[in-house]
Structure formats: C-alpha cells, structure tokens
Specification:
Length: 212
C-alpha cells in the first residue's frame, strides 16, 4: 500500500465518523463541501478549476454545489464518501500521479476536517508517511512566505532546517512536521508551532501571518 492509499483510507474513516454539516478549517465549507471538493477534484478536473476561478464566496461553487446538495441525506453523504474512498481512476491524470498530486492535499485537508470544530489530539501518523509528506511539500513551501516581512526558516522536528525566504533578519517556524506544514498552507491559527527570532521580527511576522 502506498502512502497516499494509506492516507486516503484514514481520511475515509474520519469522513464516515464526522457530522456532514460540521465546520472545517476551510472558510465556508462544511464536511460535505470538503468531501465534494475532493471528489470533484479527482473526477471532474475542469469543473473544479472553473469553480476555483469563478467563485468569490466559498460554499457557493456552481458545480461543486450539486455534489454538496446530493449529499444532504445520510445515504447521499455515504455515497459521496464512497466515491472518495474509491480514489481516482487509474487511467486519469490524478490516478497516474496519485502520490505526487494527492498525498499533501489529503494530509492538509484531513486536518481541515479534524480541526474544524476546535483543537484535537495529534494524529498518530506513521513517521515514514510524515517524512514523505514533508519531502513532497518542500518544493512549494517558498510560495507560502514570499511576501513575509522577514526571512523565514522552517524547522520541522526530526528534519533539517529549510530556508524558504531570505532577508536581513530571520524567524524560525518550528514544530512537528504536520504542524509546520499547516502553518505554511495558511492554517495558522490551528497550527501548533513556535516562532523564534528577535521580538520585533516575531511580532512583525506574526502580524503578517494572521492577515495573509
């Protein structure tokens, strides 16, 4: 079993146990919206792109809303989760590059589901899976901090420090790998990280991070 298959299986367990109408960390999206997004992303890529480009208010996506509405009943929600559990077609772009395209996506959205109603205990994910998630996320982390007012280093526990933005002064975002990734992917209020640096730099960075 690949790590993306492992993560999908764990994700499905939590989807089945969740309240379909519970909030997630994605503003405007309930659990049903999040599952619908993942299904549409894997089975209707063009519709997913259209919704992302044209939707101004999260939760009002033109095409995804149909999946959300179909999942309004218990049976409809169960069917939606079943579609996600089946994964993308092996003949599709998503299926051929499942690990590369979906592992980080799943890891972040899994926490969006788990933490939508408040803090929860850390997930007991295999260390090797976390290493693979971090490895695949590293190439895109610089984008997350390109407008930060100071230099930024990421220091996930158990891994080397990664510089993601240069500057005359630097702060370090430290914590468990998944928490650091959540911070990088915009889930900053939910990420259990520590920001180290001079008081002025930390204050400037923290103000920017809460507004970005």
């Amino acid at each position: 079993m690949t790590w993306v298959e492992w993560e999908r299986r764990s994700f499905v367990v939590d989807f089945r146990a969740a309240d379909p109408n519970a909030p997630t960390l994605c503003a405007g999206w309930t659990t049903r919206h999040l599952c619908a997004h993942l299904v549409q992303r894997e089975h209707a890529i063009l519709r997913n792109v259209w919704d992302q480009v044209t939707t101004k208010t999260p939760g009002e996506e033109r095409f995804m809303r149909r999946l959300v509405d179909e999942a309004a009943t218990p049976d409809g929600y169960a069917a939606l989760v079943d579609r996600f559990a089946a994964g993308p077609s092996r003949h599709s772009l998503m299926g051929r590059f499942d690990e590369a395209l979906n592992l980080v996506e799943y890891a972040i959205h899994h926490e969006d589901l788990r933490r939508g109603s408040g803090p929860v205990p850390p997930r007991d994910a295999p260390p090797a899976e976390l290493d693979e998630i971090w490895r695949r996320a590293r190439p895109i982390l610089k984008r997350a901090y390109r407008k930060a007012p100071v230099g930024v280093e990421l220091a996930p526990q158990g891994s080397a420090v990664t510089a993601v933005r240069s500057g005359p002064s630097t702060v370090t975002v430290a914590g468990p790998p998944l928490e650091v990734l959540l911070h990088a992917f915009g889930r900053r209020s939910a990420a259990a990280v520590r920001v180290d640096g001079s008081p002025d730099d930390v204050s400037s960075f923290t103000r920017w991070a809460t507004q970005a």
